[in-house]
C-alpha cells in the first residue's frame, strides 16, 4: 500500500470527542517517519484550521496548517461563487463564520439569498425558527455537511445534517450539502498540492460521508471500524471500500 496523500477524516477516525484514537495516532506517526505528511479532511464546520491544528497537537500529532481542510473552507468557496450580493444568513460557529468572511462574504441578520448552516452547539429554537423563515422567504439552504450524527467519547450526538433537514422539512425545500460525500474537498486538496487520484487514499469511519467521498472522487478508500459505520454494514453496500480494517495499525506491515 503506497500512496503519497493519505487523507484522514477526524471525528471517529483520528479521535472520538476530545480523546485521541491511539491506533490512528500511531499510524500517523508511522507515516511521518516514512516522510509522508498526512492530510486531514473534516466535515466539522465549527473549528478554524488553527483550532484543528491545536487539537491535533494536543493529541500528539503535528500537522501543517495547509494540510487541514474543513467543510467550512469548501462551503465558503462554493457560496462565494454562487452569491450575487455577497450577503449571507448564517447558523453556525466560528469555523464557518471565519471562512465566509475570509472569502469576502458579508454575514447579515436581514433576509439574504443564501442561508448557510454549520454545526451550532449553542442551537436554540429561536435560531431554528428564524432560519426556517429565511428559507421560506427564498434563501437557498446550503449545509456545510449532511452528517446526521457524529461520535463523542461515549456514543453519538446530533450532527449538522439533523438540523439542516429540520429546516428543509419546515420550508419544503431540498438542501445543498458541500462537505463529504461531495468530492469537493478532495478536489480542492488535490488541486492545491498537485496530486493525481491514483496517488491518494481517503481514510474514514463513516461510509455515507468519508468512503463515498473517496468513491465519488475516484480514489482508493480505507474504512476503519472505530466510528460511525460498523464494518458489517459497510460490507453490505453496493460500492465497497478498497480496504476494511478494524484499526489503522492493521495497515502497518
Automatic annotation (TrEMBL):
It comes from the Bacteria. Coiled coil: none annotated. InterPro entries: HAD-like_sf, HAD-SF_hydro_IIA, HAD-SF_hydro_IIA_hyp1, HAD_sf. GO terms for molecular function: hydrolase activity. The keyword Cell wall biogenesis/degradation does not apply. Its cofactor is Mg(2+). Belongs to the HAD-like hydrolase superfamily. NagD family. This is TIGR01457 family HAD-type hydrolase. It comes from Solibacillus palustris.
Amino acid at each position: 500500500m503506497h500512496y503519497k496523500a493519505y487523507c484522514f477524516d477526524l471525528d471517529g477516525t483520528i479521535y472520538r470527542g476530545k480523546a485521541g484514537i491511539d491506533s490512528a495516532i500511531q499510524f500517523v506517526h508511522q507515516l511521518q517517519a516514512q516522510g509522508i505528511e498526512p492530510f486531514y479532511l473534516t466535515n466539522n464546520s465549527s473549528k478554524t484550521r488553527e483550532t484543528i491544528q491545536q487539537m491535533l497537537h494536543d493529541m500528539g500529532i503535528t500537522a501543517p496548517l495547509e494540510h487541514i481542510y474543513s467543510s467550512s473552507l469548501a462551503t465558503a468557496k462554493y457560496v462565494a461563487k454562487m452569491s450575487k450580493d455577497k450577503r449571507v444568513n448564517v447558523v453556525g460557529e466560528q469555523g464557518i463564520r471565519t471562512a465566509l468572511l475570509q472569502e469576502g462574504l458579508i454575514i447579515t441578520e436581514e433576509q439574504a439569498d443564501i442561508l448557510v448552516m454549520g454545526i451550532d452547539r449553542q442551537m436554540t429554537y429561536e435560531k431554528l425558527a428564524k432560519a426556517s423563515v429565511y428559507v421560506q422567504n427564498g434563501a437557498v439552504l446550503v449545509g456545510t455537511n449532511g452528517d446526521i450524527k457524529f461520535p463523542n467519547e461515549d456514543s453519538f450526538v446530533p450532527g449538522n445534517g439533523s438540523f439542516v433537514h429540520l429546516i428543509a422539512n419546515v420550508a419544503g425545500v431540498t438542501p445543498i450539502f458541500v462537505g463529504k460525500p461531495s468530492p469537493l474537498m478532495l478536489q480542492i486538496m488535490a488541486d492545491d498540492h498537485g496530486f493525481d487520484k491514483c496517488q491518494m487514499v481517503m481514510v474514514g469511519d463513516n461510509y455515507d460521508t468519508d468512503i463515498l467521498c473517496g468513491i465519488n472522487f475516484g480514489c482508493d478508500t480505507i474504512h476503519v471500524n472505530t466510528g460511525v459505520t460498523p464494518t458489517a454494514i459497510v460490507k453490505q453496500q453496493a460500492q465497497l471500500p478498497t480496504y476494511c480494517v478494524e484499526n489503522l495499525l492493521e495497515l502497518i506491515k
